[in-house]
Amino acid sequence: MGGISQLHVSGYAPRSIMDAHEHDEAWLCLVLEGSYEERIRSRTHEHRAGDLLYCPELTTHQQSFGDDGARKVLFAPDDSLQDVLSEGGVRLADAPFVRGSRPLLALGHRLATELELADPFSQMAAQGIALELIATWARARREARREPPVWLRRLRDVLHEDPSAALSQEAWAAVAGRHPVHVSRAFRAAYGVPMGEYVRQLRVESAARLLRETRQSVLDIALGCGFTGAAQFSRSFRAVMGCSPSQFRASSR
What we know:
Layout lengths: L3 E9 L4 E5 L5 E14 L2 E6 L3 E4 L5 E17 L1 H9 L9 E2 L3 H16 L4 H22 L6 H12 L7 H8 L3 H12 L3 H19 L4 H7 L5 H12 L3 H8 L1
Helix pairs in contact: 2-3, 7-9
């Protein structure tokens, strides 16, 4: 089946630039937080949380990070694992990526939590999650036929700008200029989850950043991120991150 090496989480400073460089081995990278622009194979793409990218070995690429910097899970698939991906229909030479996948992001946060635990079983658990992450990504790549339409990508950008906004399905449909039923179906087909679940996961990501970087109370963070109270926040946070908000804060110190 193959394996994974150099599995770790890295952070990148706001507005930092990584000059053009290449690696001696192939890498997979999942964006957990933040955003950045990458130039690779004469193409430029902007990546955000939930994007998973493959960088072939000896491929020159350059990265410019956004105002919030970025946090990423990185790991190197060995040759036999890359063979499995290629035989399964993933065109690795194209430096493929998947955009904004909530299932991938949820797996990435679970993986990061395991790495932060650093107990005798963390590496074993992290390896298993990473393999599931790769399989989920490969299936998405194989099934992908085209980019979501412009109006749907624009709606996704609006959701990212203020996930705490308490807007109805009809309000989001008005933003998109489409019927609510059409928006709901198209969004789920493109991003793998219903729009309401996507927004909840964005709120959890914002809350996780505040838990790690500030001393605000759990309740203040919950309300500021759009949750109705501590109980709803705790349920949603545990569903995405695999632990309670308090446990996450303790493991991040």
